[in-house]
Amino acid sequence: MTQRERFLAILVGGLLIAGGVWWGFDKYRTAVKKRTNEITRLQEEQQRLTEQQLQGEYANRQMGEYMVRSLPGNLEIAQGMYQQWLISIVQQNEIAGYSVDPIGPRPVGGLYHQMSFRVLGTADVPKTVALLHSFYAKDYLHRIRDLSLRPTKTGSFTVELTVDAIALMTAPNELPERKDDSWRVDGSLAAYQDPIMNRNLFQPPNQAPRYEGSPTIEAIVGRETPAPLTFKDAEGNTLRYELIDGPTDLVSLSSESGTLKINSPDKKEFPISVRVTDNGHPAQSTEQTLTVKVVDPPPPPAVEPEKPKFDDATQTVLTGLVKGRDDWEAWMHVRTRDKTLKLRVGDKFEIGTLKGEVIEVTRRYAVLEIDGRRFNLQQSGNLSEAAKASEED
């Protein structure tokens, strides 16, 4: 064998060895990849089965919870029992003029019956919230589908509820009634009411009453003196009054009318404090400090003389100017009394509502003065008309 043939044989042998190695490596890599894919598939299958098992266990647990919370499987028993329970919580929370009426059950998916009820009544906000607490505290499979509150003229609300409840078809007919409260609701009614009652759903925030009276109240010594307190409420709510500080032996306060009654045998001055609370939601209150002064009674009012029903001055006429022995006289005739007054200078007169004095008498007129005004009364002149004319001048 020549050198060339030997070299060619070595080359062919090397190629065959390399091809065999490559073929073996490829087979190995394919086997490893197949094994890896199979391991991955098995792991995914294991995870799927585990999840399916967990979901099944969760579904079983959930179904068990639903079974415990379900109404009895018998539709008539379930509907009657649930309606009686609705009536009981309505009565318990003092809903006035109530009615609880079934709307009609319907089967759903061959799994359960859905029963619906309509609850109608009248209540204020605290009783309405208490009714909702009683409803949600009961651990049934139920819900309030629709809630309607309509204000009435009396300050309460017309409450209307549409309620849905579920009875599983596989539930036994003798299910015991749920006694424990639902974990979904705070067990304390006060804690449940607080975030609702402390805000008004239909109006701006409730404002506290304002005092608009005087800070000082006067009372008469030795006499019971009523003194109404002037508080105004922006919303027009009903107010209740309370005396929180002051001598209760001398002062009392009506809780409804807000009238103070003060009766002190001595003249003195002392402070009192009152609290006024409205009935809004939430209720607001105001405290006000006042000063009470016990003083002497005021002087009696001056008694004005009763005016005559008929004024004689309107029927008084100057009938004559007569020269007497010493001086001139003015003769004034009061027709209503058929009386003639003979007046000289300096004489004072009172005729009807007019009081005056004769200043001067001449042959043509008499000068009279009434309330500081002087005027001339001519022959045959009317006294009342002349006096009225002098007021206009």
Automatic annotation (TrEMBL):
Transmembrane segments: 7-25
Keywords: Coiled coil, Membrane, Transmembrane, Transmembrane helix
Gene Ontology cellular component list: membrane
Domain Cadherin span(s) in chain numbering: 212-310
Domain of life: Bacteria
Database matches in SUPFAM superfamilies: Cadherin-like
Keyword Transmembrane set for record: yes
Keyword Calcium (UniProt): no
Coiled coil: 25-52
A GO MF label: calcium ion binding
GO annotation, biological process: homophilic cell adhesion via plasma membrane adhesion molecules
Gene3D superfamilies in UniProt: Cadherins
Protein name listed in UniProt: Cadherin domain-containing protein
Source organism of the structure: Rubripirellula tenax
